[in-house]
Amino acid sequence: MEFASSPDEYMPTFYIGQHESDRTRVTPELLRQAQDCNYDMLTTPITTPHFHSRVLTLLSNHLNELESQPTRSIPAPVIPSLSPFDTPLAPGETISQLLAVVSPWIDLCSPDPAVYNISRQVLELEVAYAAFCGIGNIILPSPKLHQGKLHGEGVTQYAYAVQEALNIGNYIQMSISLPMMDNPEQNSDEVVGSLAERARAKYLGLSENGSQKNSMEELEENEDGGTVIFSRKNSARFDFFGTWDAWNVIRTLCKYNNRLSVALSIPSHLPPLSVSSRWHSEPLRLLSITSKTFFKNPSGYPAFTHNHQALLTRYMGGIRNPPWLLLYDVGPIPGFENPETIVSAADGVLSPSEAADPPSPTPAEASQLQRKGSKKSTKTVNDPTPHLNYLRYLQSHQPPRTILERFGAGYQDYLQAPLQPLTDNLESITYEVFEKDPVKYDQYLKAIQQALIDWRDQSKRASGPNGRIVVAVAGAGRGPLVTRALQASDATGIPIELWAVEKNTNAFVLLQRHNEETWANRVNLVKSDMRSWKGPLQENVPQRSGCTGHWPPPRNEDDASNASMTSEAAPPPEPQPPTHGLIDILVSELLGSFADNELSPECLDGILPLLNPTHGISIPCSYSAYLTPIAAPKLHADVAARAPNDPEAPHTPYVVMLHAIDYLSTTLRPSTSRSATSESAPTPVPNIVEAWSFSHGPMNALPTASTNLHNTRHARLTFNLRDRAVCHGLAGYFEAVLYPGVELSTNPLNMEEKSPGMMSWFPIYFPLKNPLYAPDASTLTVSIFRATDNRKVWYEWMVEAWSNLIGGIGSGEKKRVRLGVSEMGSSKKGGCMM
User: Which residues form the PRMT5 oligomerisation domain (predicted)?
Assistant: First the structure.
């Protein structure tokens, strides 16, 4: 992973398209003109108004026939195949630059079976013909959630229709148009000629005259067993997660098909951060932006509020394939009607006044703007494509990527199996990736320096000859910690006797070279598993040149030659049993993404008995594992795709740079913003809870026949959810104390305080084979085990969903009800071998 020499070298790519609701066809000339204006693509209808009229006539005749003969069983009509008059599309060279739009006037959620049947036929005809023409991307109309008195009743039949459409267009990417939240007023806007208008009253829960039954009122039982009346008008509020809930039903029934995604409409007034975070975790293919999303700045130029800019940066930044942007009804392509007109391309070069932020609207103002359009301004803008130009401006002014984003470029949401360092010898490139992290090794340097200083200042007795402090690096790899130990000794002026232990034969060769060329033979090298090492050899024990596992050999060649001649003349000296000393400071980097998942406790069990029993120090001295439930649709889909060829895929904890996720359990923290918009509301912060911890210091050797039960762990953690959600798995992190006052952390809550910019570890992801749905105001209980059978270590995990319900009318007693339980995940088959 090569870093860019400068953050400015990175330029995000915005693919921007244009949509006009009244467009009937796209000619090559129109597409060329759009590209000259700096658009990347255009939308096209699949069928014409002629086809629309033909379908309306067919449906009207059928409904009239049903009404005139109510007792007769009349089969549903069949729409004849398309004719040249019914579609503007044809295969061609430009087809790949078009986004096809399914007719918005169909209603796949209609409770009227006649309307639904006709709508499904239209969908299937259009998808089949678009696939024939070579269309790669199709935009589906939003599911109509409000149908008379019904709410969300037709989502499952919408999902079924989409599933069938996916089977028809085997290679087409389908995006469902969805608003960020369920707004009944916005949902009531009908497309001209919509089939929904033909739905019969009896299927909508309406009276024959079209009014809602119960005079817009419903009955509800009160605590005394009586009834109270409330108005539906008062209950018609925003449902922030209403459209997400519908999307969840659709993609679940479609089995998380990787060709199904979201075309998300960005409103003028953004919902709470919890809503935008949820959509961030979903597969966003398109961001739909209308003229109402923009506000006029003081210069009269259309611009985004600061919060809209932040949202765009979050959705677009740091990923390999960001969503496309689609401008809806912001005006026709300039210059097409008059080819002689010269139109400059939207290059994103704006003056400071043109790029200035507009004032953020209040919720009431935003609601009015949804109906009336954007704020008016007396100033005119002499720009044929101001909305496009502004997006190009934002493209060139995206914040630079952080070091972590550059390091992990291309690895977001990429599943990797954890390392098995005890059974596998790592390749040099693996060591090299770890060594690119300066923060981790700077923290280790600080820890070793402070340990040496405290040892000297507290006048502790050292274990080495001449009062030198014995430092051992266990699992030296290519030597970065060895270098830090030598630097700490030089910086503090405190002499040390340094030992480096490494089992990897190939890495040991490099350690020998470093000792010769870089470390001036100041390091005693041992080729051994740290668990079987007997400890530092005392200096009074003679060692022959080339002694297995020790370096360097004697440097005096004459002495070696004389020793050879002497050995021929005299019998060799009687071998003396070697004596082994103690370690004062033990340094290791055995931590995994979940702290102990690479068997740091088991490895250190074998070497900690060599630690000075009075003053010995282990770096790190302790570490803890942390968990939180997450929504991760992309990761779940990737795991499910692996399962047919790898049955253990749903039971494997993966190391992954989490990106498109949503933390399900959060706590609100006050915002420092003084803005009047919703974004100034308290900021949700994830609840990340400690599962267990390990501490290391001097210890007695374990009996030969001892088990590993002392390293087993179990935790049962509770997480409260405010909003409905689907749990796809658990995100795991760790915190480690290298030495008091020096820490490492991957916990998002404090990593920027304890080890800012550290990038050596990605989080760990424990997947659920079957996602678990939890409603609003519910609780998730996580059970996780660290298990062993003395040959390997593995994890087992499960999640339960709970809800607090009123026990009975008038009782007021709350009853905790279990709503669902996940399957137990177990990594036993792929556990980490000891």
Answer: 622-804
- Give me the architecture of the 428-589 domain, per CATH: 3-Layer(aba) Sandwich (3.40)
Homologous superfamily (CATH) for 620-833 = Hnrnp arginine n-methyltransferase1 (2.70.160.11)
Q: Sign of torsion, CA 58 59 60 61?
A: positive
104 DSSP 8-state letter: T
Sort strands 173-179 and 16-19 into parallel, antiparallel or unpaired: unpaired
The Cα-based distances of 457 to 463, 492, 495, 621 in angstroms read 16, 12, 14, 20
DSSP string, 581-629: --BSEEEE---BTTBSTT-HHHHHHHHGGGB-TTT-EEES-EEEEEEEE
Q: What CATH superfamily is the domain 2-205+239-337+348-401? A: Divalent-metal-dependent TIM barrel enzymes (3.20.20.150)
pLDDT band at 234 (very low <50, low <70, confident <90, very high): very low
R_g of the chain, CA atoms, integer Å: 34
Amino acid at 148: G
What's the rounded Cα separation, in Å, for the pair 56 and 480? 74
Establish how many alpha carbons lie within 13 A of residue 691's alpha carbon, considering only the half-sphere containing its beta carbon.
27
In sequence order, what are the residues at sequence separation of 6 or more whose Cβ sits closer than 8 angstroms to the Cβ of residue 712?
A: 785, 786, 787, 788
Encoded tokens for 205: 């829960």
For residues 120-134, average pLDDT: 97
> According to the model, what pLDDT value does residue 551 have?
40
Q: Which amino acid is at 375?
A: K
Distance, in Å, from the CA atom of 530 to the CA atom of 608, rounded to the nearest integer, reads 10
Average pLDDT on 169-181 reads 95
Residues annotated as catalytic are 589, 598
In whole angstroms, what is the distance from residue 177 CA to residue 247 CA? Answer: 10
Query: Can you name the residues that pair with 36 across neighbouring β-strands?
Result: none
Q: Is 508 exposed, middle or buried (0-12, 13-18, 19+ CB in 10 A)?
A: buried
Q: Residue 189: pLDDT above 80?
A: no
Give the chain's end-to-end CA distance (angstroms, integer): 30
Residues of the chain with CATH 3.40.50.150: 428-589
CB atoms under 10 Å from CB of 660, counted, come to: 19
Find tokens 């036993």 and name the residue.
828
> Which tens digits make up the pLDDT trace of 437-494?
889 999 999 999 999 999 999 999 999 988 899 999 999 989 999 999 999 999 999 9
* pLDDT tens-digit series, residues 18-50: 999 999 999 999 999 999 999 999 999 999 999
626-672 pLDDT, tens digit each: 999 999 999 999 999 999 999 999 999 999 999 999 999 999 877 65
pLDDT of residue 656: 94
pLDDT exceeding 70 applies to what percent of the chain?
81
